[in-house]
């Protein structure tokens, strides 16, 4: 009887291993098919901007809600993209040569994440009306384009959590930015912005702001309203001081980058709340050091284990 049980157990284990291997192979085959589809689509689009996207790729987009077309040398957006309609959740058209974002963007009414980095888009050839008709976009990334201004219509995108417009030609932000009350991350580094509207203080959920490498000479006092602010990058500007209540009111602030400005430590130490900020800054720095040391020790352990 014991031998019979052993034989039965071995047989069941062998059967289980076969099933696992079959599932693994099917998964690998599916991944290979998807990879081949993406490669073929990219090759076709690069060869001819008017070519149709393979039907199987269109079905994949509709099934997953993810339309990924980065680095395809596109000058226009393929018509098949608009066919995805409300099924689309993410559209990545980064690193192409797009000149225009047409009104048809409104077809993708349920779009949540729109990535348009590194194209040739100008603010006048973006259909802001189409963009603002989207139901609930959370991420709008327009880095590395030719934008000079953000229109007041940007304030209609009240569901935005991340607004990223770095490495462009922006000269100002509209006061309507203050209507983005769900915004958490705001990045406009490496532009030509010389003023920040006081309405920024209405974005009370903001935790990360990067205004590095602009033409700023001051930050509005309303920055003190950003009680959730944890990181402020303002290096390489013409700043000479900071809002007087920044350290007192922004009680979670622990990262402050002012390199390349005229703000001195003597100035900062005079602000109310400086000591508390400095303690948070040092604690965060120490935690980062401890983490790095822990990572190094872990690597040593793993290296030793492999060599044994």
From TrEMBL:
Secretion signal span? none
Q: Does the keyword Repeat apply?
A: yes
Q: Which UniProt keywords apply?
A: Leucine-rich repeat, Repeat
For this protein, the record's InterPro entries field holds:
Leu-rich_rpt_typical-subtyp, LRR_dom_sf, LRR_domain-containing
Which SMART domains did the record assign? LRR_TYP
Has UniProt tagged this entry with the keyword Repeat?
yes
UniProt name for this protein: Plant intracellular Ras-group-related LRR protein 8-like
Q: Which source organism does the UniProt entry give?
A: Coffea arabica
The uppermost taxa in this organism's lineage are:
Eukaryota, Viridiplantae, Streptophyta, Embryophyta, Tracheophyta
């Amino acid at each position: 009887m014991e031998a019979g049980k052993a034989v039965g157990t071995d047989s069941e284990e062998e059967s289980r291993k076969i099933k696992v291997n079959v599932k693994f192979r099917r998964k690998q085959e599916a991944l290979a098919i998807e990879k081949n589809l993406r490669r073929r689509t990219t090759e076709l689009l690069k060869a001819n901007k008017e070519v149709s996207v393979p039907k199987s790729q269109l079905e994949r987009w509709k099934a997953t809600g993810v339309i990924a077309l980065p680095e395809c040398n596109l000058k226009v957006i393929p018509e098949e993209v608009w066919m995805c309609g409300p099924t689309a959740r993410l559209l990545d058209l980064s690193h192409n040569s797009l000149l225009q974002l047409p009104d048809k963007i409104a077809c993708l009414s349920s779009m949540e994440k729109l990535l348009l980095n590194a194209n040739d888009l100008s603010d006048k050839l973006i259909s802001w009306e189409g963009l603002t008709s989207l139901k609930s976009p959370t991420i709008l990334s327009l880095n590395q384009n030719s934008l000079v201004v953000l229109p007041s219509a940007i304030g209609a995108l009240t569901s935005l959590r991340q607004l990223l417009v770095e490495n462009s030609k922006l000269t100002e932000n509209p006061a309507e930015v203050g209507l983005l009350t769900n915004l958490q991350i705001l990045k406009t580094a490496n532009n030509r912005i010389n003023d920040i509207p006081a309405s920024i203080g209405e974005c009370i959920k903001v935790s990360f702001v990067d205004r590095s490498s602009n033409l700023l000479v001051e930050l509005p006092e309303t920055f003190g309203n950003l009680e959730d602010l944890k990181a402020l990058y303002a290096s390489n500007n013409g700043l000479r001081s900071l809002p007087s209540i920044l350290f007192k009111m922004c009680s979670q602030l622990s990262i402050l980058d002012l390199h390349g400005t005229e703000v001195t430590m003597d100035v900062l130490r005079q602000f109310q709340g400086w000591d508390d900020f400095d303690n948070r800054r040092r604690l965060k720095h120490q935690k980062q050091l401890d983490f790095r040391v822990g990572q190094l020790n872990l690597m040593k352990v793993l290296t030793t284990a492999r060599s044994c």
